[in-house]
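== Fold encoding ==
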Amino acid sequence: MRIVVTDFDTEVCKRLEDALSRFTHWLPYWVNEIYIYRQPKDNGGASCRFDKRYRRMCLYVSGELVHSNIEDIEPVFAHEIAHAYNGDICMCLDTYMPTIIKEEGTFELTRAIFMERIEEQTQDLAFLFLDKTEARDG
């Protein structure tokens, strides 16, 4: 697993790489590289994007999160890694559902309902990753 951290000083790069490394064994098989960037819009958390063609995950981290304790960073990283498991569902929703659901307002409502459930599933996976990693690392 290759982890590339950019946009941060050396000490922060090392902290972010160390925090993320604890969870890389939970990534799906297709993720071979993770790039960590400074989030352009500082919302206090993190977000991610995936490019399956290039086997890459891009993780965007806020300046606020970077300066948090490691105990605050790890749950966010676990949550973002969990998104790797439902990214295809989100893509299908956005790509195919508009062609299936044509009634005005129905697509937006359906998407919102699905996205809420997907986010709940993501958080459930993140909790599992955190619990199992703690048990493994003892």
Summary: The CA atoms of residues 22 and 134 lie 9 Å apart. The chain has one domain: 2-137. The longest strand covers residues 33-38. The longest helix spans residues 106-137.
